[in-house]
Amino acid sequence: MTKTILASSVAVLFAATIAKSFANNDLPDLGTAAVNTFSLEKETVYGDAYMRVIRSSAPVLNDPVLNQYLSELGNKLVAHATGVKTPFYFFLLRNDEINAFAFFGGHVGVHTGLFLNANTESELASVLAHEVTHVTQRHLARSLEAQQKSSTATMAGLLGAILLTIAAPQAGMAALATTQALATQSKINYTRLHEKEADRIGMQILVDAGFDPNGASDFFAQLATRYRFTTTPPQMLLTHPLPESRITDARNRASLYPHRYVPDNLNYQLAKARIQVRFSSFSDQAALSLFNTQLKKRTYTFKQAAQYGKALALFRLKQFEESEQIIDELLALDNDNLFYIDTKTDLLAQKKSYDEAIALLESQRKLKPTSQVINANLAHIYVEAGQPKKAIPMLQDIIFLDKQNILPYQIMSDAYRKMGDKALEHYSKAEAMALMADYKGAIDQLNYAYRHSEGEPLQIARIEARIRQFREADRSLEALK
User: Which residues cross the membrane (predicted)?
Assistant: First the structure.
């Protein structure tokens, strides 16, 4: 068991070098990485690679509307944090478990279950602020440095176990238990210190960003009540212990700030409704019943969110006319809302009203030229409307602003296929596979691209260079398995 964990951990460790190799074709020496001070550069490299591994093995959401909402919320908090040394990247995992986690390079993962269980945006923001603090205070790196007297192999096992704990707490805890050099009690105390620090600094970030400081204690109390007598707590409580003193501390800390009324955010409730309908265990009919009940009994926070959830459920049940009627009413109240625009686009695409969809999105693009939601939707509509060439520039814009986004490569591949450009179709597929750490598959796609690039020397040179990079990365990975 231990050998298997360490082997997989070493594979994860190597994957972290890939991003750097793409930049300069120079793989860093991993032999002493674990016993040196864990630099910010190493954190960035490891974070990039672990994100690729996550994409290959976990249900990462490629939903532009939810991704843009989460990124804007997360970066609003980051803007009020101190000690920010790396860019932040917020992403969603489709998982009903209540959990959020942070790891190297400013990556913060959020389970959809967190939206399902947080009542307000301030509650959700309190969790994100906590995770942002884990990054700014370099808690993972500090954990490693606290063990730097251990042997290289054991340190590799510790790093792998920490990363495994982030993604799969129960497996990760087992891995930590098998790391011989780990002083169990001191490690627990060290973790508690990190949690206290993240709670304290996270609360300040939360308040400075304009959220309710009671969001943290309210969410903690809700979790404590729900799981007080359960034998299987949610993943978040495995990685973030919740003793009664922590709830009390959060309440006491919140009481130090002046009382102020912080209204909830409509967009949070729209995001929650979207997740309830599209990315939860609710059946389509159950989701429709949920929002019908909210509207009938007026138990909603925002009527618009309940209406939006109902429209989404009706869409999934193929009751398109009724769905569109609700969305049109919502757009009449707020014609710039991206949640409504996205669903209106889906409705127009469903009935092949491409010209109307293009007109709507082009007008919005003039107002929001960098919006991932607008650009992704418009690119998709152009591809569906038989105008794939027009989709390429906006997909390139998305990639320029978010190089970790796999969705534009997927749409781009479809666009090039419809244009009859086999070389760039396969090249786009290769880039998507590389983002999921599937280097063998990426090399195969590049070989296909090479065969279709005859007479284009610059494109051939570009493909050859990428093949060399992927081969080097793949050979090194295989050597460490």
Answer: none
